[in-house]
Write a structure and sequence with these properties.
The radius of gyration is 19 Å and the shape is globular. 34% of the residues lie in helices and 21% in strands. The chain has nine helices and nine strands. It has a domain of 163 residues: Rossmann fold, CATH 3.40.50.150.
């Protein structure tokens, strides 16, 4: 079945099917333009991954316990580079490199470079740790990103990944009503039809789509579905994850990575109602 008839919504395509490559590149070009033509990096998400605190950044804090002292670390999707200060405060790192499409001014004392997440300019086996925080859900080619990162890891290296858990919940980028916001906020604004549609989307339509996908994943049928029309491209306002296009699911990622050459083990090291963190390790 063609990605379960595009997951019953008509708005997803598989990002690992060759026949979809042309459309996927078009989506990627539109998303890159969005990030460069809006205040996304300079205003909307600036400083979002800094000043880690217990209760607010528990996944990030748990991640630091999985980095061995003396590791060389690559951070994919480093944004404004704010997370590196949090990392080195808690872990002894021999070398840090951050990559992003962001062209903002990065901290001068660390190495940063501009690159695509699935086309990284490094030699194979260059890093002990590759980490990514709240990035994979924004990628048009999440599987290619995982392939690329795996190649860059040394024997016994680790991929550490944190992302929103969209296993059963919706993304703000999906059609959840006619506008951003919760059903309750729309009721307060008198938008009763919008609130009703939001309730249907969040409680019936999207959970149904996700349940179908989980059944396929349990059978080993992976698709890495990508949203073809994220709402950030046609709604003017911004809200977190209005630009998310891959409904990140840790079970799908772990199932995919388990088939990689050199795979030793993988597990979910953190999970809440909204966020997951996973680790995948190579053999020595």
């Amino acid at each position: 079945m063609q990605l379960l008839n595009r997951l019953r919504s008509g708005r997803y395509i598989s990002s690992i099917e060759p026949e979809n490559q042309k459309q996927l590149i078009q989506i990627q070009n539109r998303m890159m333009y969005y990030y460069q033509a809006t205040p996304y990096h300079n205003e909307w998400i600036k400083g979002i991954n800094t000043y880690w605190q217990t209760g607010q950044h528990d996944a990030q804090l748990a991640l630091t316990n999985l980095i061995h002292p003396g590791s060389t670390v690559l951070e994919i999707g480093c944004g404004d580079g704010g997370a590196v200060e949090e990392l080195i405060r808690r872990v002894e790192i021999t070398r840090y490199v951050g990559i992003d499409l962001n062209t903002a001014v990065w901290p001068a004392q660390y190495m940063f470079t501009k690159a695509l997440a699935h086309a990284l300019p490094f030699q194979p086996q260059s890093f002990d740790v590759a980490l990514s925080m709240f990035v994979i859900e924004h990628l048009v080619f999440p599987a290619k990103f995982l392939d690329e990162v795996w190649c860059l890891l040394r024997p016994s290296g680790r991929l550490l990944l944190i992302a929103p858990d969209f296993t059963s919940s919706g993304m703000a980028s999906e059609r959840i009503g006619l506008s951003y916001g919760s059903g309750r906020s729309k009721i307060r604004q008198g938008k009763l039809f919008d609130a009703l549609l939001t309730a249907y989307d969040t409680r019936i339509r999207i959970p149904f789509i996700r349940s179908l996908r989980l059944k396929q994943i349990r059978k080993g049928k992976l698709s890495f579905p990508v949203l073809t029309r994220p709402r950030c491209l046609y709604l003017p306002d911004f809200t977190p994850d209005c630009d998310a296009i891959y409904p990140a699911c840790p079970e799908e990622i772990l199932c995919y990575m388990a088939n990689k050459d050199g795979y030793k083990e993988g597990w979910i090291f953190y999970r809440s109602r909204s966020t997951f963190g996973l680790v995948v390790q190579k053999y020595e």
